[in-house]
Amino acid sequence: MAAMGYKILEYDSLLKNYYEKDIELRVNDYKRKKKELLGRGETLSDFANGAEYFGFHRTSDGWVYREWAPAADEMYLIGDFNGWNKTSHPMEKKENGVFEIQLDGKDALYNGCKVKAIVVNGDRVMERIPLYAKYVTQDPVTYMWCAEIYEEEKPFEWTDSEFKGEKIPLIYECHIGMAQEKYGIGTYTEFKDNILPRIKDLGYNTIQIMAIMEHPYYGSFGYQVSNFFAASSRYGKPAELKDLINTAHEMGIRVLLDVVHSHAVKNTNEGINEFDGTDYQFFHAGAKGNHSAWDTKLFNYGKNEVIHFLLSNLKFWMTEYHFDGFRFDGVTSMIYLDHGLGSAFDHYDKYFSMNTDIEALTYLTLANELIHQINKEALTIAEDMSGMPGMCIPIRSGGIGFDYRLAMGVPDMWIKFLKEYRDEDWDIWRMWYELTGRRPKEKVIGYAESHDQALVGDKTIMFRLCDKEMYWCMNKDSQNIIIDRGIALHKMIRLVTHSLAGEGYLNFMGNEFGHPEWIDFPREGNGWSYHYCRRQWSLVDNHDLKYEWLNNFDKAMIQMSKSENLLSPKNEAHNLWVHQGDKILMYEKGKEVFVMNFHPNRSFSGYFVPVSQPGEYKVILTTDDPNFGGCDRVSQTTTYQTVQLPDGRYGFQVYIPSRTAIVFKKMPVRRKKAE
Known about the structure:
Elements: H1 8-11, H2 13-18, H3 20-37, H4 44-47, H5 50-53, E1 55-58, E2 62-68, E3 74-79, E4 92-93, E5 98-104, E6 114-121, E7 124-128, E8 136-138, E9 145-148, E10 170-175, H6 188-202, E11 206-210, E12 213-214, E13 227-231, H7 238-250, E14 254-259, E15 290-291, E16 296-297, H8 304-320, E17 325-328, H9 331-335, H10 358-374, E18 379-382, E19 404-406, H11 409-420, H12 428-436, E20 444-446, H13 461-466, H14 481-500, E21 504-508, H15 537-541, H16 547-563, E22 573-579, E23 584-589, E24 592-597, E25 604-611, E26 616-622, E27 639-641, E28 643-644, E29 650-656, E30 660-666
Helix pairs in contact: 3-10, 6-7, 8-10, 14-16
């Protein structure tokens, strides 16, 4: 089928007129690779079964261990079971670079038994962690990492067979290790018991978990993966992660994995790099296989065995742990040969050129097809800052197949506003266009700030607004104009972002209540301290502190959004009024009318709010509510009746205090009772 037949060309005239052949090339490469990978009648799900063949598996009378190491001359299995004898258990070399060993006896390997592989390549003899290891632990004395045989006493009993997530994802992004207030690493069980109820109470229906795939350096935030099939042992046992996910499902909460297929850690002792003695087993050879900015290794997405490994990895997390989808990290880095470093992406030629990595786009298309084949309700989110056309268009329509992309330009806009301009100089038109601008038919996840802004060297929105004043003036009895400004703008920024920036929404844990300070993982430079690598929930739980106000607002905003189905793609935002001098923004979405006054000191009485539908309107949410730290200047009981102006416009007049947002809802028409 020629690209001419794909709907993506109908959605974007520039593609149809100038880049049709590029779309056709992309589609044809995906079809070619899929045909190359699959046998007759086989599906991608059938193909992606690496975890069921490679690694350690019980047999009827013992164990079998298989590994793919095409450049290896010899392989041996070592571990506690044989006293770490390097030659007593040789593996047999099969076809296509596969090595295998059979171990007789059900107790030949046992729960807790530590194992490694010896790989011989020429005169090099190397200890390696098995590629498909499902549990990898670090020795507390030597700090060396090692695979460990892990078996549950009895199979985990899932109770989530009927689970379906809510249509619109309201995402609470979280990190298991730093989710507790204690000085140390939190566990899966602590997160289940202590944090999931908070998330449920706030109204979020999805969690996106970072740093699950095993990584040797805690401070990498989980983005330098060493063992792709191992759930991080820092936080507990695999069964405890399953329990967390099952409990989330029982609460109606979808669980997404922050998956890292964009690169891998360079380490050879812990990771997959040079497993068989070459630098090209999984990655591009030479300099092409190194990410200069991240100091990591880059996958060769054109290699069938690599595709098999990565697709098997996705299927494993979905079937073994019941993850409901993935946030794909570093997509921009994947799809351009220069990894998007320093690129402005200000012209379509930047998307379709010799710099475009067609092999990576093909892999991502196959990945999306596989994920939705396994679970049609699954969600996939692309971390793509470039705006590649078709990223979130269905495959059948000529796209890459993601459900959403992150609205990465939005946090950048807020940083620029807060760092470079006074409130009175904010460009309201730019705000509107940045928050509403996206490709036709492509859904995005809106968010005001990223987890990167919470790290040392950067600041969250609240910390940037208030800085050191947060240490002294967050008591409800204290008066401080900096804190007042910060609380007012924090609420407004989140509301306008939530309502305009996407068909889904994301918040990083703690940011909803303006968590102070930054995240600093234990390292040599801070004395290996956990002081800044935790979440201070006691701040929001303290009724004497203003953090409670921000938390209350976030909860009310999420509940309003859900009850009104605000982020439905059917509810398009329509601009009603923008006034740069007044710093007023008004827009309509569904039955709701949003009125924003960003002016730092001007309040307006009798300000006309134009609407498309005549009738009665009532306030359903305002940042000025005292429960949210507001000044109670907005009546929440008044009914506003529209009037018609001589020019035909309908609307009503309201009082709009400075630095205040108000959400109105059109009330249903009251029917007259029959006499």
